Amino acid sequence: MEVHYYKEFSRSLNREMEWKTYGTGGKICLAFPSQNGHFYDFENFHMTDTVARWIDEEKLFLVCPDSIDEETWSDEGGDARWRIERQEAWYHYIVDELLPRMRMLGHAGEHDLAMVTGCSMGAVHAGNFFFRRPDLFDAIIALSGVYNAAYFFHDYSDELVYANSPAAFLPNLPADHPYMKLYAQSKMYFCVGQGAWEDDLLAGTRELDTILCQKGIPAVFDYWGYDVCHDWCWWQKQLPYFMEKVLGA
User: Three-state SS across the chain?
Assistant: First the structure.
């Protein structure tokens, strides 16, 4: 597996950002870290090993960006407007800077659609990017996430919190919105366990499940057993299981 490390300046964030890539070509997949995590976590917790065969076969070009969760979602005692503005800056870093860079490095075309994945907070990020930009992403594997920004911002809300909360904006999406057709053409897999430390994530996944059903948006929601806890050992099983459904055997 070919692995590369990068550290480059971000205009959106006005700082240097780090990331790693795995592979030389194939479908671009942004794999977001879990809460307060970093670009090396997917590798350190052996998640990259679970999808190595697709990487080696040049079916998958895995990209692991860094997060700024400690300034945004996790800083629940901080100024809410500043937090969500930083989140929005990170969003623009990913879609306006990192994704075009990934297309170049992964030898992808300008209009080739990517996919997103992540565990826990990584699934939160994956859901935000996928539902906000189905013109850029046509597949998602979200493991143990919540999809409502109120979980982190509580009683505070504004236009940016709304934009980063699929559970808030999806119910208001008109039936004739062009994104509805794009969602219908996409591959969506949401998974959560029902064991230890999954209670809030289970509730968040069920909330999104209900919303997509009401909107007629096709997606797969898979609820694993009561022995399945909120931990890497289970995400290591889930990711390749769903990756095969997206990319084939």
Answer: CCEEEEEEEECCCCEEEEEEEECCCCEEEEEECCCCCCCCHHHHCCHHHHCHHHHHCCCEEEEEECCCHHHCCCCCCCCHHHHHHHHHHHHHHHHHHHHHHHHHHCCCCCCCCEEEEEECHHHHHHHHHHHHCCCCEEEEEEECCCCCCHHHHCCCCCHHHHHCCHHHHHHHCCCCCHHHHHHHCCEEEEEECCCCCCHHHHHHHHHHHHHHHHHCCCCEEEECCCCCCCCHHHHHHHHHHHHHHHHCC
- pLDDT category of residue 106 using cuts at 50, 70 and 90: confident
Whole-structure pTM value? 0.96
Distance CA 148, CA 168 (A): 7
Q: What pLDDT is stored for residue 66 in this prediction?
A: 97
Rounded-to-integer distance, Cα 235 and Cα 47, Å:
8
Q: Are 239 and 143 in contact (CB under 8 A)?
A: yes
- Cβ pair 109, 25 in contact under 8 A: no
Average pLDDT over residues 124-133: 98
The closest of 112, 102, 150, 147 to 129, measured between CA atoms, is: 147
* Helical axes 121-132 vs 80-92, angle rounded to 10°: 70
Q: What is the Cα Rg of the chain in Å? A: 17
Q: Cα–Cα distance between 112 and 117 in angstroms, integer?
A: 17
